[in-house]
Amino acid sequence: xxxxxxxxxxxxxxxxxxxxxxxxxxxxxxxxxxxxxxxxxxxxxxxxxxxxxxxxxxxxxxxxxxxxxxxxxxxxxxxxxxxxxxxxxxxxxxxxxxxxxxxxxxxxxxxxxxxxxxxxxxxxxxxxxxxxxxxxxxxxxxxxxxxxxxxxxxxxxxxxxxxxxxxxxxxxxxxxxxxxxxxxxxxxxxxxxxxxxxxxxxxxxxxxxxxxxxxxxxxxxxxxxxxxxxxxxxxxxxxxxxxxxxxxxxxxxxxxxxxxxxxxxxxxxxxxxxxxxxxxxxxxxxxxxxxxxxxxxxxxxxxxxxxxx
Amino acid sequence: xxxxxxxxxxxxxxxxxxxxxxxxxxxxxxxxxxxxxxxxxxxxxxxxxxxxxxxxxxxxxxxxxxxxxxxxxxxxxxxxxxxxxxxxxxxxxxxxxxxxxxxxxxxxxxxxxxxxxxxxxxxxxxxxxxxxxxxxxxxxxxxxxxxxxxxxxxxxxxxxxxxxxxxxxxxxxxxxxxxxxxxxxxxxxxxxxxxxxxxxxxxxxxxxxxxxxxxxxxxxxxxxxxxxxxxxxxxxxxxxxxxxxxxxxxxxxxxxxxxxxxxxxxxxxxxxxxxxxxxxxxxxxxxxxxxxxxxxxxxxxxxxxxxxxxxxxxxxxxxxxxxxxxxxxxxxxxxxxxxxxxxxxxxxxxxxxxxxxxxxxxxxxxxxxxxxxxxxxxxxxxxxxxxxxxxxxxxxxxxxxxxxxxxxxxxxxxxxxxxxxxxxxxxxxxxxxxxxxxxxxxxxxxxxxxxxxxxxxxxxxxxxxxxxxxxxxxxxxxxxxxxxxxxxxxxxxxxxxxxxxxxxxxx
Lengths: 309, 507
Hints:
The complex is a heterodimer.
Chain A: H1 8-34, H2 42-60, H3 63-87, H4 92-110, H5 136-140, H6 145-163, H7 165-175, H8 177-182, H9 187-213, H10 225-235, H11 240-262, H12 269-290
Helix pairs in contact in A: 1-6, 1-9, 1-10, 1-11, 2-3, 2-4, 2-9, 2-10, 3-4, 3-9, 6-7, 10-11, 10-12, 11-12
Chain B: E1 4-15, E2 18-29, E3 33-37, H1 44-51, E4 59-64, E5 67-68, H2 74-79, E6 82-85, H3 97-103, H4 111-124, H5 140-152, E7 158-162, H6 170-185, E8 189-193, H7 197-203, E9 206-211, E10 214-219, H8 226-234, E11 251-260, E12 270-278, E13 282-286, H9 293-301, E14 311-313, E15 316-317, H10 323-329, E16 331-334, H11 349-361, E17 364-365, E18 368-369, H12 371-384, H13 401-413, E19 419-423, H14 431-446, E20 450-454, H15 458-464, E21 467-472, E22 475-476, E23 480-481, H16 487-493, H17 501-506
Parallel strand pairs in B: 3-8, 3-9, 6-7, 7-8, 13-20, 13-21, 16-19, 19-20
Antiparallel strand pairs in B: 1-2, 1-4, 4-5, 9-10, 11-12, 11-14, 14-15, 17-18, 21-22, 21-23
Helix pairs in contact in B: 3-5, 11-12, 13-14
């Protein structure tokens, strides 16, 4: 065991990379849940995005078109969920679980001929001057653009929910859909749009795994990231700021435990692999237990809406 | 008519199996308060939803200020100058007052300007309200103010109010009426729906009476007695409940210094509530919704456990016992919410009868259900309390509100309780069913049971209670004999006008 083999700057720098897929998937799910819909199919939409993005990127040679394809793939799968739950009024929990299974199966079907191929690489950005600042530069300013896109989406969602009228309507729909309907807002339309946004974000998160982080296609590449994204949304009390903290914490502990495994720390590998999940959930539980508890769940979360008149 | 603001001609709307509105025609004049009367199911809600653009009529036309008017959504209605204050408040608990108001407006100004306008309007009409507060923390009266101000900010020509006073204290009703009179003086028309005929007599110049979807009459409420109007509504004569009177029995239920936090978000904690009820007594507990009624009921039913000595039944501490143990002893409850709390909507009446009757009626043996006995019990409830349903195999959901309420109350009464606690026994129930329920409660008391009625309907409490107390912010007032209490005294017991925030700050 040689702890000095771990480079702290590299460790912190790779934290942002490790957190990005979860961050993307979680911020999408946050918008869905704030609109009052519980979509448990994040894992399925992520992995669908991962394979669709991979296929599009290898076919076109451009990772950026791949990311667009991933967003479209995730949104397409979420459209299935939207039709089932919003128009045919199926149970959201069961439909979401089924969506995960469909996504997992669909991705291995689509990915049969792509195992072992390398994806076109995504270059990291390099901004003169600020990328060269010692310590801060490598940590903050030498990543691939998707890291910043993810943060940008979080910031955008935060501002959208807090300051825009459309964001207020979305929150109103999630809080009390009957009242929103009585005021003349289109509950179903708002929810379908939110579900599509959630699907697109989950797709981006999945493609980040297959195009940047791994970067190749393997079956089950998401490895439960969708579930941790769901948990982070709840424990972050549906707030974008806390969600970023939760995702980065998870990314940080993931990277740390990988490094610890490499230097042969005398802790069983299984316990190290568990660590990110345990630490993230524990921290977010403590965070939300401190102030107001688990309060703040949207009032109509997971409930059916059917206009009675 | 020349000065009609809104004319309805031949409005008809049918739902599968029922015609909600049939050929309805009347006019609402500019600057009048027009009452719309009728029992539950008479078609009032469908009619106002049609005017507000939530329902499209099958036939018929509307004319607003000389222009054809056919709103296809509430937005169009609001744009045409029609605003509505809902019976069940259409508010968002987790949002602020200003956010709630901006959601109901067509072209809302930025929140900062809006807050200033809210303050302006609330001062002008005497409706104090802080735009930054979270709606979930407001009292019912304050919530209604949010809705009214939301309407007023759009300068409506016609304002629809659906049962606006059902949750207000007498003083708050007084404030509301002042506001409505100011509006009328400015030329705004108001379509006012209420069950409370005395209020309509005090406020409205014109009334249209609906029965079974049809207009059955019009009158001038200022010169028509409440009884005449009620009889036009039901199409028959009304029975007034008869009461036996004197109470001298021993104390059966005593609540001592009951304090407990609310188990619900935005609930009200109970603070040192004490009272005792005797055999044969009807105790009325009044108060505006959200002042601890639900919590008190939970503490009495056993759904919320409290310290042992806080609730004593026949001298025995029962505070820690659950609902089933309390039922076994003879302390029964019927909660307010019929669907989902008092009854399981998708289960049959037989199953619902089993759910609370199993212990006292011996409907189970060795863990197995005795379906035959349960069915007989359900049938006896249906027969004894005139529940209109094809049979006990029907689901609770299929019953109308009044019929289900008769079933729920009857189910408890037939189990021969020593103490029966009911919450809002006639809420949303039409006049004849309400009279039957009140009579059944009085009959139960005259047979020696103690009855606790929690209700927001003060007329009801005055009619049936022997003693009266009010819940206000989780505290119970002293018990007073109901006979001879004046409206002002009751108002003071209820804590006066709620949410006079200005006064709070000054104090």
